[in-house]
């Protein structure tokens, strides 16, 4: 932008001192920026000898171009620059243009080379992981396994950091979703690899244990390969990636073509339009042929499919006439035909959406108790092979239902990233189901084996986690359908400019530019992760009407809106919107602290002082955020600083919330267990307590690929086990 300013400056006969000083400042700023940029490039070159020469040449070119621009803009000391022999931007504008071109090309070259280095680092890291995996597959003793797995854990941490940074840097949302899916597989499979390998070592002659372990290794290799495909933007054997076609995307494209007839009657053929509709209707057969689609939905979809064909026939008839004779009546008839065709397609879209989401909601509700998994664990420990076989059949049926649900949801997901998430979920159920079965068979054959029991637990946790993820995915799909793209849920206090706060009416609403949004993106991502953690904690409470839960959910929703603001999305459009949302968030934090104080009055446990301490911290943080949000500032720089501070303080409150929610949950669990940590009181009834364990604590979520847990497992593996 600085260079553009220089190139586009107006040549006026009279040049004030202010203009001359401004031009010189811009030139110096460019030169300094180039200097800093080149310093980083040279440091990268010194660490990577294979590209050192190319990088050094590009850095030298960039530095030379920056210095040339600084010399040509050195005009502030000249009273009459045009009469001086010194060459300046005024006497040689083409020189500035040449220097600018050289600078931009050399900077681009440095960036491309740096990117090549990052890609090479990821590939090298992947190769290390693969080599260590091969060693892990061949080990025959616990001692050797512990040593190699420790190395494997460190290599996975490195790979996680590299791919995580790359995922954040990706601009293509589709690639970002694929990368997230692959990394999720690696995260879950790393723990599975540990327990499956331990089980195989303990029971080397067990066929089901061997099948279980091989499945994990195979899935990890596929995920590692997909990461490299995304990073290098390539496919094996030069294949082209075939994007799955969904009903939503088909209807969207079809409607665009139909509506395009208003502008141009000749840009496509009737055969093309008919083929597009045929493809859409073929995909609706996934719904009408499904055993899980209700009779009512099936009938409606068939009726709308038939109607769509009729509407297209009528449209084609009027369209062909209009091509031959453009009368007013015909054009009006064409408009009516276009509207009726589009309306029919909208109704079809609505019907398939309703069919898919209602099925998903019913299935997720039905399977939320995980009865089959619990039965497999119990019968496995009992060594009851007949009962295990019975429940594995039920799990296979459940898997088929969930796979079908994912396929139908993909058709109505609405965006490519959500489509990819549906495909990933389908693959997860498809693979994890048989793995649970093999783990359960192993336990049934060796009912006293603690390792086999632990292994089954890990695979069951993965299944439960995927079911939980499906609930969030279903919510996102519904949000997209209802026009709330990217919004978790609408919070009633979302600000509207000039409506809520009289103190803000004098402030001019400001939108952040691209550079400022990039600066707060990291904070925003942290905020996003924290909202997921808080949601995970609140969903564990059986009593969703509990005041602590409701206030926690509300604060999470507001924090998510603030995260979307950092991406330039969502309902918070200006900085004024953000500041008002931060005020409301802070108020909710104070109210939550009051609820925690009321709860603490009923606590007899040793944790009461900790609960009170955390509640006081929450009050203090909320007040600080409120003061920051209400502070009056002027000027773009000051406003951005305030935005940064508001998001930072919101993040701190959310971090504290992640600690408070499980603490309260633990106190309630103790009460149900009969430890008497609570005084009996109506608002905190015993039957409201959920006994589920906390699988998503902040400490675990904060560790990349769950490495902290892995290290604990490795540490606890003693050689007594091998004896």
Automatic annotation (TrEMBL):
<dbReference type="InterPro" id="IPR030045">
    <property type="entry name" value="CTNNAL1"/>
</dbReference>
<dbReference type="GO" id="GO:0005737">
    <property type="term" value="C:cytoplasm"/>
</dbReference>
<dbReference type="GO" id="GO:0007266">
    <property type="term" value="P:Rho protein signal transduction"/>
</dbReference>
<dbReference type="GO" id="GO:0051015">
    <property type="term" value="F:actin filament binding"/>
</dbReference>
<protein>
    <recommendedName>
        <fullName>Alpha-catulin</fullName>
    </recommendedName>
</protein>
<dbReference type="InterPro" id="IPR006077">
    <property type="entry name" value="Vinculin/catenin"/>
</dbReference>
<comment type="similarity">
    <text>Belongs to the vinculin/alpha-catenin family.</text>
</comment>
<dbReference type="InterPro" id="IPR036723">
    <property type="entry name" value="Alpha-catenin/vinculin-like_sf"/>
</dbReference>
<dbReference type="GO" id="GO:0007155">
    <property type="term" value="P:cell adhesion"/>
</dbReference>
<keyword id="KW-0963">Cytoplasm</keyword>
<dbReference type="Pfam" id="PF01044">
    <property type="entry name" value="Vinculin"/>
</dbReference>
């Amino acid at each position: 932008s600085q260079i553009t300013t220089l190139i586009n400056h107006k040549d006026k006969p009279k040049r004030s001192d202010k203009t001359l000083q401004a031009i010189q400042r811009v030139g110096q700023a460019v030169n300094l920026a180039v200097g800093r940029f080149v310093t980083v490039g040279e440091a990268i070159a010194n660490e990577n000898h294979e590209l050192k020469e190319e990088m050094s040449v590009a850095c030298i070119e960039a530095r030379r171009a920056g210095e040339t621009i600084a010399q040509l803009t050195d005009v502030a000391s000249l009273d009459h620059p045009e009469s001086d022999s010194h060459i300046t931007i005024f006497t040689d504008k083409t020189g500035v243009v040449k220097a600018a071109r050289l600078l931009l090309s050399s900077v681009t070259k440095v960036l491309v080379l740096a990117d090549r280095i990052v890609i090479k680092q990821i590939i090298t890291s992947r190769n290390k992981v693969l080599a260590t995996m091969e060693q892990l597959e061949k080990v025959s003793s616990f001692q050797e396994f512990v040593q190699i797995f420790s190395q494997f854990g460190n290599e996975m941490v490195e790979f996680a950091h590299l791919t995580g940074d790359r995922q954040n840097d990706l601009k293509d949302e589709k690639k970002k979703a694929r990368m997230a899916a692959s990394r999720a597989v690696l995260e879950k499979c790393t723990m599975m690899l540990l327990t499956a390998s331990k089980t195989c070592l303990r029971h080397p002659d067990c066929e089901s244990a061997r099948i279980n372990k091989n499945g994990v290794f195979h899935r990890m290799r596929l995920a590692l390969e997909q990461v490299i495909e995304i990073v290098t933007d390539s496919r094996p054997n030069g294949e082209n990636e075939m994007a799955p076609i969904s009903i939503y995307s088909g209807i969207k494209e079809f409607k665009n073509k139909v509506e395009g007839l208003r502008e141009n009657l000749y840009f496509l053929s009737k055969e093309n339009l008919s083929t597009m509709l045929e493809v859409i209707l073929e995909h609706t057969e996934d719904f009408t042929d499904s055993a899980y689609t209700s009779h009512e939905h099936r009938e409606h979809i068939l009726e709308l499919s038939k109607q769509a064909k009729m509407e297209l026939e009528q449209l084609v008839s009027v369209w062909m006439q209009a091509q031959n004779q453009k009368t007013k009546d015909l054009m009006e008839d064409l408009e009516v035909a276009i509207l009726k065709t589009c309306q029919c397609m909208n109704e079809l879209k609505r019907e398939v959406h309703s069919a898919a989401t209602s099925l998903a909601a019913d299935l997720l509700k039905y399977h939320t108790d995980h009865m089959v998994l619990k039965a497999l664990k119990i019968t496995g420990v009992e060594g009851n092979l007949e009962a295990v076989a019975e429940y594995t059949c039920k799990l296979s049926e459940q898997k088929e239902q969930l796979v079908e649900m994912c396929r139908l949801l993909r058709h109505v997901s609405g965006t490519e990233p959500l489509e990819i998430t549906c495909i990933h979920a389908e693959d997860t159920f498809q693979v994890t189901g048989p793995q649970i079965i093999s783990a359960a068979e192993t336990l049934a054959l060796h009912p006293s084996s603690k390792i086999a029991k632990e292994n089954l637990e890990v695979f069951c946790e993965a299944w439960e986690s995927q079911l939980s993820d499906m609930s969030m995915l279903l919510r996102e799909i519904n949000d997209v359908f209802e026009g709330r793209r990217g919004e978790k849920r609408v919070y009633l206090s979302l600000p509207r400019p000039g409506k809520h706060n009289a103190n803000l009416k004098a402030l001019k609403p400001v939108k952040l530019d691209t550079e400022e949004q990039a600066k707060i993106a990291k904070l925003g991502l942290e905020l996003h992760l924290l909202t997921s953690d808080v949601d995970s904690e609140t969903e564990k409470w059986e009593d969703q009407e509990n005041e602590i839960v409701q206030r926690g959910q509300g604060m999470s929703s507001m924090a998510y809106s603030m995260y979307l603001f950092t991406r330039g999305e969502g309902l918070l459009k200006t900085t004024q919107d953000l500041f008002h949302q931060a005020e409301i968030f802070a108020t909710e934090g104070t109210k939550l602290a009051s609820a925690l104080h009321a709860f603490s009055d009923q606590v007899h446990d040793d944790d009461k002082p900790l609960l009170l301490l955390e509640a006081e911290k929450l009050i203090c943080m909320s007040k600080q955020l409120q003061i920051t949000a209400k502070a009056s500032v002027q000027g773009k720089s000051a406003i951005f600083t305030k935005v940064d501070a508001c998001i930072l303080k919101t993040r701190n409150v959310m971090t504290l919330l992640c600690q408070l929610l499980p603490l309260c949950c633990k106190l309630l669990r103790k009460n149900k267990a009969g430890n008497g940590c609570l005084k009996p009181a109506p608002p905190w009834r015993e039957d409201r307590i959920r006994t589920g364990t906390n699988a998503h604590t902040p400490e675990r979520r904060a560790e990349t690929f769950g490495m902290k847990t892995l290290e604990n497992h490795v540490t606890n593996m003693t050689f007594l086990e091998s004896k």
